[in-house]
C-alpha cells in the first residue's frame, strides 16, 4: 500500500518532528537509509532524482526501491525528487511511487503553475501526491547547478499553493543544494510566516551542512520534510575511502560496499535523532 506523504507530514507537524528525506544514488546508499530507519523505528522518505535514476537504470531502480518499500518494517515513502521531465515523472507515478516532485522553479510563475497543475492532475488521478517548488533553491543539485538563489516570496507561495493544490511545497529559505561555500543562514522568520499562512506541509531542500541546531529550530517552526543528499553522498564515499586505507590490497565489492552502507546508516541515524522522527514509525 502506498503511504501518503501529506498524511505523514501532517502527523509529523502535530508530533513536533520532521521526516528525513534522503537521496540515494546506488544500492548501498538505499540499504544504509532503510537500515537506519528500521533500527531507529523512524518513518523515512526515500528519494531518487531523475539523474540518479538514469544512472541506476529506471527499471532497476523502480524494482529495487519498490521492493524496499514493501519489505520495510517502517513507513517508507518512495519519492521522485527534482523531476524536470514530466514524462519521467509520469513513469515514476505509473511505477508505483508514493509522491513526485516537479521542479519548474526556474520557469516563470505562470509556467510553473501550469506545469504543476498538469502533474497534480495526472498524479492525483493515480493516487500519487505532488511536491513542487516556489522560489528557487540554487546550488548544485545532481547534474544541474544554478547560482540563482532568491528567497520565496510569501504572497507568491500562497497564490501558488492555492492555484496548484500541491500536497507539499518546497521553499527557498536560505539553504542551497550541495556543499556550502559559506555557512548557510536559514531565514527563520520567513519559514515561520510561510508555515503560519500555508497549511500545506512545507519542505526544506539543500539541508546538508546546515547546523543541526538550525534545522531543529526550523522543525519547531513547523518544517516537516527535510531533504538531505550531499551529507549521505559524503558518508557513502568515506565508507569506501576509509575501507581502502585499511585494506589497500582489498577488492571485494561486498566488503567496501558494506563499509559504505554502514557510514550512510550512521549519518542517517544522526539526522533521524536530530529531527526526532525515531520511534514514530
Ligand atoms: P543537499 O544535497 O544539499 O542535502 O540537498 C538535497 C536536496 O535538497 C534534494 O532534494
UniProtKB/TrEMBL annotation:
<feature type="binding site">
    <location>
        <position position="205"/>
    </location>
    <ligand>
        <name>Zn(2+) 1</name>
    </ligand>
</feature>
<feature type="binding site">
    <location>
        <position position="178"/>
    </location>
    <ligand>
        <name>dihydroxyacetone phosphate</name>
    </ligand>
</feature>
<keyword id="KW-0862">Zinc</keyword>
<feature type="binding site">
    <location>
        <position position="133"/>
    </location>
    <ligand>
        <name>Zn(2+) 2</name>
    </ligand>
</feature>
<feature type="binding site">
    <location>
        <begin position="227"/>
        <end position="230"/>
    </location>
    <ligand>
        <name>dihydroxyacetone phosphate</name>
    </ligand>
</feature>
<feature type="binding site">
    <location>
        <position position="177"/>
    </location>
    <ligand>
        <name>Zn(2+) 1</name>
    </ligand>
</feature>
<feature type="binding site">
    <location>
        <begin position="206"/>
        <end position="208"/>
    </location>
    <ligand>
        <name>dihydroxyacetone phosphate</name>
    </ligand>
</feature>
<dbReference type="GO" id="GO:0016832">
    <property type="term" value="F:aldehyde-lyase activity"/>
</dbReference>
<dbReference type="GO" id="GO:0005975">
    <property type="term" value="P:carbohydrate metabolic process"/>
</dbReference>
<feature type="binding site">
    <location>
        <position position="103"/>
    </location>
    <ligand>
        <name>Zn(2+) 2</name>
    </ligand>
</feature>
<dbReference type="InterPro" id="IPR013785">
    <property type="entry name" value="Aldolase_TIM"/>
</dbReference>
<dbReference type="Pfam" id="PF01116">
    <property type="entry name" value="F_bP_aldolase"/>
</dbReference>
<dbReference type="InterPro" id="IPR050246">
    <property type="entry name" value="Class_II_FBP_aldolase"/>
</dbReference>
<dbReference type="InterPro" id="IPR000771">
    <property type="entry name" value="FBA_II"/>
</dbReference>
<dbReference type="GO" id="GO:0008270">
    <property type="term" value="F:zinc ion binding"/>
</dbReference>
<feature type="active site" description="Proton donor">
    <location>
        <position position="81"/>
    </location>
</feature>
<keyword id="KW-0479">Metal-binding</keyword>
<protein>
    <submittedName>
        <fullName>Tagatose 1,6-diphosphate aldolase</fullName>
    </submittedName>
</protein>
<feature type="binding site">
    <location>
        <position position="82"/>
    </location>
    <ligand>
        <name>Zn(2+) 1</name>
    </ligand>
</feature>
Amino acid at each position: 500500500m502506498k503511504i501518503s506523504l501529506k498524511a505523514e507530514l501532517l502527523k509529523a507537524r502535530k508530533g513536533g518532528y520532521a521526516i528525513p528525506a534522503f537521496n540515494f544514488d546506488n544500492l548501498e546508499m538505499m540499504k544504509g537509509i532503510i537500515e537506519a530507519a528500521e533500527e531507529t523505528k523512524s518513518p523515512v522518505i526515500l528519494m531518487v532524482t531523475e539523474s540518479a535514476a538514469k544512472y541506476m537504470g529506471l527499471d532497476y531502480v523502480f524494482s529495487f526501491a519498490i521492493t524496499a518499500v514493501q519489505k520495510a518494517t517502517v513507513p517508507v515513502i518512495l519519492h521522485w525528487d527534482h523531476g524536470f521531465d514530466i514524462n519521467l515523472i509520469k513513469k515514476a507515478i505509473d511505477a508505483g511511487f508514493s509522491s513526485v516532485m516537479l521542479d519548474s522553479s526556474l520557469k516563470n510563475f505562470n509556467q510553473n503553475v501550469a506545469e504543476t497543475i498538469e502533474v497534480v492532475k495526472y498524479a492525483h488521478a493515480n493516487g500519487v501526491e505532488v511536491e513542487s517548488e516556489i522560489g528557487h533553491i540554487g546550488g548544485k543539485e545532481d547534474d544541474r547547478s544554478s547560482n540563482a538563489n532568491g528567497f520565496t516570496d510569501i504572497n507568491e507561495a500562497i497564490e501558488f499553493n492555492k492555484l496548484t493544490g500541491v500536497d507539499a511545497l518546497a521553499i527557498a529559505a536560505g539553504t542551497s543544494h550541495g556543499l556550502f561555500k559559506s555557512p548557510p543562514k536559514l531565514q527563520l522568520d520567513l519559514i515561520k510566516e510561510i508555515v503560519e499562512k500555508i497549511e500545506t506541509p512545507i519542505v526544506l531542500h539543500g539541508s546538508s551542512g546546515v547546523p543541526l541546531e538550525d534545522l531543529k529550530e526550523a522543525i519547531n517552526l513547523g518544517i516537516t520534510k527535510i531533504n538531505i543528499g550531499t551529507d549521505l553522498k559524503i558518508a557513502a564515499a568515506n565508507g569506501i575511502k576509509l575501507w581502502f586505507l585499511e585494506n589497500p590490497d582489498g577488492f571485494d565489492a561486498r566488503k567496501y560496499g558494506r563499509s559504505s552502507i554502514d557510514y550512510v546508516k550512521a549519518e542517517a541515524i544522526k539526522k533521524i535523532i536530530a529531527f526526532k522522527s525515531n520511534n514514530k514509525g
